[in-house]
Specification:
six-stranded mixed beta sheet, alpha/beta
């Protein structure tokens, strides 16, 4: 439980003990958390300089021994606050947890232990300019690598933006047709009033071309969202036909 993710209730099932009972036992007795009222969690709080004066930044975890050659940095939302996390990619151990995502604050926190923190050879990070600057200023010799998750996510977002753009073009055709219909109805109303005839309004009907499977272009673009989440060799026959219609 101390060194890896594990559901504590699984122990309760094995020992025929209620999950809450064994959880409270671990929290209040075995872990030693309650021995000092949890004060040991924030022993690494560090005072930093800001534009408005000094500020105390909470650093629940800062273990120089857990730093290594290959590190990773990312933000994590805990409760309502964002934390910056640094972990060792080789050992999986957490090296730093800092309650801040401000560049200057992170730099001061790391540099406060600069003598004891070894310089990593590579740092895996997201594509934000924030962590790019932090890594460049604090770890100038480290090679910065964009992590796979954010690269794939950006690629998926780019695919979706193209799909949405084409869908907006189809919707614009519908809006243009509706605008022309309203203009013609207004003109017809004026003609009826000038001739003293009864005006009977018509309903707007927008006829869209349909493919052989009965789908319109708008329906095809709306239903192809998850198609873009797969490689083309993973498509079934229906998805392959749908993809050819999108080209």
């Amino acid at each position: 439980m101390d060194y890896g993710p594990l559901n504590i209730t699984s122990f309760g099932v094995a020992l025929h003990i209620k999950g809450n009972t064994i959880y409270n036992w671990y929290r209040d007795v075995l872990s030693g958390f309650a021995s000092d009222g949890g004060q040991s969690v924030h022993t690494n709080d560090i005072e930093v300089l800001t534009r408005h004066g000094t500020k105390v930044v909470e650093v629940p975890i800062l273990k120089p021994d857990n730093f290594g050659d290959k590190m990773a940095i990312d933000e994590k939302l805990i409760g309502e606050d964002y934390y910056t996390m640094m972990s060792n990619r080789e050992t999986g151990k957490l090296a730093m947890a800092c309650k801040s995502i401000a560049c200057s604050e992170l730099e001061q926190v790391i540099k406060s232990h600069e003598s004891s923190i070894p310089q990593p050879k590579s740092i895996t990070r997201d594509l934000s300019s924030l962590y790019e600057k932090v890594c460049t200023d604090v770890f100038p010799r480290a090679i910065q690598v964009a992590d796979k998750f954010h690269v794939i996510r950006n690629l998926m977002e780019a695919h979706q933006s193209v799909r949405i753009r084409h869908r907006q073009k189809e919707l614009e055709k519908r809006r243009t047709a509706l605008k022309e219909f309203k203009a013609s109805e207004k003109q017809r109303l004026e003609e009826c009033e000038s001739l003293g005839k009864i005006f009977k309004p018509k309903k707007f009907h927008y006829k869209e071309d349909r493919y052989e499977n009965g789908e319109t272009a708008l329906e095809l673009l709306a239903r192809s969202r998850y198609l873009l989440f797969k490689f083309n060799h993973q498509w079934n026959e229906k998805q392959k036909k749908k993809s050819h219609r999108l080209v």
